[in-house]
Each structure stands twice: as structure tokens, then as C-alpha cells.
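Worked Example 4.2. Read the sequence first, then its C-alpha cells.
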Amino acid sequence: MKYVLFILCNIVVLAAEDSAEDLLKSVRHPSLLNSWVKMSGTINYKNKKTGKRISAPIQLRGRFSRLEMKMQILINKSERFLLAQDFADGFDGSSTLNEKKAKDPSKSLASMMIKPDDFTFSFLYWTFKKELGTERIKTFKCRILLLSHPKEDEQVKIWISHKMKAVLKVEWFKGDKFLRRMEFKSTHTIKSSVDSKLRFSIVKEAEISSKGWRSIIKFKEIGGNVLPEGKKVPEGLFLKD
């Protein structure tokens, strides 16, 4: 059986005609294999108005299970975040720890208009408001759901693949004002070293943008595995210094 995992979005295959609530539940509580991943690549930012460009290396290390996911991201070899999401605890189960500040603020995650929550998808646990209809993204028919932040004046539209139950696009709004957009461009599949039938796919390239700017996250070196019963993640997967 093929198990599929997006680091930036999780996939679970369900029935063809789910209610909006069931559809949302499928991405909020993904059925993941015990697995790990280590990726490295580059973030490229461009501001069309000013011509400003930023390029910085990124590393992502992750540990996943049916109960939670834990990720560590390293930007420009200095700025470091530890991110976690407990699926059962939903909105209250998201946590972000800035383990190390950026040595060069001009190449920080924030300078490229990216938020740590973009990696954990904590917005999936905002309050469901309504379904907005359907739309195709490439060959995929997507259902569009509207969610609202439980504490702030912010909304998010989520495009979920009708077939795969995968989040393919996200747009943030404050009232009627468009804020930013995130889209997933390509994926990479990793097979278990023990059983090739067990595999998971991860986002290889993602684009985050708004009016006048765009950031592209592209991973080139990708490694990972499904953890056999009783096995731990490789020593040193998460940085501790």
C-alpha cells in the first residue's frame, strides 16, 4: 500500500463524496507512517517592485507518526526553528520555538516573507466556516474550504484535491483584503529501505507569494526512510548545539 505524506501538506485517501467536515478531518488527522526525512535546498525571494533578491540555503529535518509531527528548519546556516504539531490537540497542539536567531537578519525567514507555520499547516485547525465550491488546479478537482482564525481577524481559503484529499493551494485574507498565497509545485517519493511497498511523498518545491513578491522553496537533496518497528530516528537527525 502506498502511504503519502507531504511535509507541507498531508494526504489521506477517503471516500469520493465526503462532507466538508470529514474532508477537513482527513487533512487535520493524517494517517502517517512512522518515518523521518532530511532535506536541503534553497529559498529564493524576489520583490518585483524594488528588484530586491534574497537567496539562502534551507535544511529541513522531520520525524512523523500517526500522533504528531516534529520538524526542525535551519535557514542560512544560523536561524533555527523547532516546530511541532500534535494532531489530536489541533489548534492548541501547534508549537514554534525559535532555537537560534538569524546572524544575518537580511537573510532570515521573515525577510523572505515566510512564516514557520507555513511548514506545520497550523491554519488547518482554524474554525471551519463554509465550503466555497470547486475549482481545478492542473488536472486535480479541488474543493475550496473557508476557515477563520479563532482569535484574530484573519481567514484562509484551502484548496483540497477531491481525489487525494491533499491541500494544493492556500490563500490568506484579512477581511476582504488578500494577504498571501502558497502553492505546491512538485513532490518526491521516498521508499522504505525494508519494504518498497511502504513509501511517502514529500513536497520538493513550494511557492509563497503576494502582490509584488514571490519566494520559492526548492529542495534538491532529499533523504528519509520509514522506521521499522522498534527503530529510532538516525542519531543526530535533530541539531542540538
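Now turn to a second chain, presented in exactly the same format:
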Amino acid sequence: MVNIIGTNGKDTLLGTQDADTINAKVGDDIIDGKNGNDLLSGDAGNDTLIGGAGNDTLLGGTDNDSLRGGTGSDSLRGGTGNNLLRGDEGNDTLDASYSSGNNILSGDAGDDYLDISYSAGNNTVSGKDGDDSFYADEVRGRNTLNGGAGNDTFYLSASKTAPYSLTTQSVNGETGQDYLSIYYTRATKGITSSFDAATNTGSIRAGTNRINYTNIEQLEIRGTTYADFIVGSNGNDLLFGGSSGNDSNYGNDTIFGGEGNDYLNVDYSTSDNILNGGAGNDQFSATSSTGDNLISGGDGNDNLSASKTRWQ
């Protein structure tokens, strides 16, 4: 292992064929790890970090940095500025969580993990090839998430404190069998949603949180404790009328499954709910739901699970 430390000036630091640890320190630096499983740290300044071959760890630091993993399964962590993170080949982890800047993340080839949770900037995140996982929990900015080729999974949630103005997340699964999971359990207002079956596009809004999505094959929505209007997609959806688990659901919810074999849930609800499965073989769950529930199966062979429940 080789340990290389830069100066407070503008450095170009080159690694070896072995596993290197390189710290550029202050300045606008270029670091190329070459071969080996390297640890590269940019520190302050507008830095360029290149992992090269091997399973590398790249840390951006402050200011605006460019991080490129190279071949191998790499871990890239952006700093506080406007950063570019590219995984290249391999199953990479691209992390811009808690960032305040406007970042660009590109997974490229491989099954990548891309995380912008708790960030405040406007980020553009692309999975490219492979089965990628996207995380955008409690984000504050306006973000664009593109799945690319492969079977991708998107996890989004509303922030505990609602944004001051409308904040929209745009999700495009693109090709493959893509899954979108939305947790709005912390939203401060109820859900309104829509879906266009002809174009496979939909929109979900709760107060100043909004998600626009397209090319999603399976949808999971977990509603709020307020009155929700939830509409499923063409696929096999999981739709929950209130907070998950054994929490009380106080809102009067309306849930439409649409096409596909859907799962509609209003367990532990104390309110009056309307559930419509639509076409497909749907499952309904209304355990310990004490309000007046109106449940319509629609076309297909449907199943209702209910105990300690009232329904019409």
C-alpha cells in the first residue's frame, strides 16, 4: 500500500498498481488511482478523482468535484458543492445524500445504488444499464430520476416538514420492469393522484410534495393519516390507505386499483373508505377497520380479508 499526500496547491497525483491512499488536500487537484483498491480524498477545491481499475472509494470534499469510479465496484461520495458522480462499469454506490448542491449522478453499467436522500439541491440521477436502486427520502429539491435499461426500483418519501413551495420529483422508469415505492406517511396533507392508462403516466401529490412518474410497471403507495385519493397504475400495485403497520388511519380514503392484480389495504382505519379493485384478481384487506367501508371488486377473481371490520 502506498500513502500519497498532496500540497495546498494545484496537484496531479497518480497512484500505483497497488492499493493506494491518496489525499489531495487543499487546491484544485487531479487524482488518478490507477489499478488497485484505492481510497481517494479530494478535500477542499474543485477536484477530479478517477478510480481506475479496482474497487475504489472516492470522497469529494468541499466545492465542485468530478468523481469517476472506473472499472470495479466503486463507492463515490460527493461533497457539499455541485458534483458529478459517474460509476462506470461495476456495481457502484453513488451517494449524494444530505448534499446542498445540484448534483449529477450516473450509474452507467452494472447494478448500481444511487442515493440523494435528505438533499436540498436539484439533482439529476440516471441509472443507465443494469438493475438499479434509487433512494430519495425526504428530499427538498426538484429532482429527476431516470432508470434506463434494466429492472429498476425507486424509493421516495415525503419530508417531515413540507417544502414552502411545490416541489416535484420526476421519475421515468424507461425500459424494463420498474417499481416505484412512495411513502407519504409523513405528509402534512392528504394525497390526490391521477393515472393515464394510455400513456402510462401518473401524478401523486400531498400538499407541496408531488411526484410525476412514467413507465412504471408496479406501484406501491402508502398514504397519509388524512383523506387520501389514491389511483393505481396498469400493473400489480400495492395501495395502502394510511400509515403502514398498526397505526390509526384517520382520513376517509378512496382507493382505485385500476388494471392488474392489486392489493388494497385500509387496516386499522377508523374512517369511512371506498375501495375499488378494477380489472384483475385483486386482494382487499380491512382488518380492524371500524368505519363504514364500501368495497367493490370489479372484474376478476377477488379476495377480501377482514376481521373486526364494518363494510357495505
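Notes for the reader: The radius of gyration is 23 Å. The first strand starts at residue 2 and ends at 5.
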